[in-house]
Amino acid sequence: MNYATNLIITIRDSDKWPSFDRPDFLNELDEIANEALPKNTVEGYLASLLIFHQLSEELVRLLLKDAQFLIQLAIFPAEIQFTEKKKLMYGQLIEELKCTISFNDKNEFIEKCLRLNQYRIDIVHRLTRRDSLADLEVQILKVKELYDELFTLFEAIHDNFRLSFKDYKKDVFIDYELDEFEE
Fold first, then answer.
1. Residues 7, 8, 11, 14, Cα dihedral to 10°
2. Angle value at C-alpha 150, between 148 and 151, nearest 5 degrees
3. What is the crossing angle of helices 42-75 and 90-98, to 10°?
4. Fewest 10 Å CB contacts: which of 90, 94, 118, 119?
5. What pLDDT, on the 0 to 100 scale, is given for residue 182?
6. Largest CA-CA distance found in the chain, in angstroms, rounded
7. CA geometry: angle 159, 172, 58, nearest 5 deg
């Protein structure tokens, strides 16, 4: 299937738009992180921290996919291919997001991602220098609050992308016949 046909098929079926690969598992991880916090143990705090960090990485990845899909729609019938960079570290993913198209709350989202990452670095690399669990708990609770804010921002941004996709589906791609593009 050629590029144009694939893009038209994708825009016409909202189930094919960018989304999480394993949403149920990500929800399960979120629950685990939230259940680990009140245990007031090093293990619970670290589990929560690492899960919130990984979940935020998934948010960044999906927003990158959203931005790339919107670019493809905007420049159609011109073609652009984006390679999925699966092995990028968190900071590299954020840099990729910085370099993509602008969108509402992009800078705030990125700033919160960077802060969350800084908390992770600080907590993990200074773990043995702590005086008590209370100090660790304070930072982890800030991570949880930051992650919740980040997720709320993500939902609004992702919804805006989906509204844009819907507009392209309705206003731009409605008139294209697939046989025009098939080889």
1. -110
2. 65
3. 30
4. 118
5. 56
6. 69
7. 30
Q: In Å, how far are 34, 55, 120 from 127, measured between CA atoms?
A: 21, 22, 10
Crossing angle between the packed helical segments 106-125 and 90-98, to the nearest 10 degrees: 160
pLDDT (mean) for 34-44? 92
pLDDT digits (tens, 9 = 90+) for 91-107: 999 999 999 999 999 99
What is the Cα Rg of the chain in Å? Answer: 20
Crossing angle of helices 42-75 and 3-12, in 10° steps, is 120
How many CB atoms neighbour CB 21 within 10 A?
9
Burial (Cβ within 10 Å: 0-12, 13-18, ≥19) of residue 181 = middle
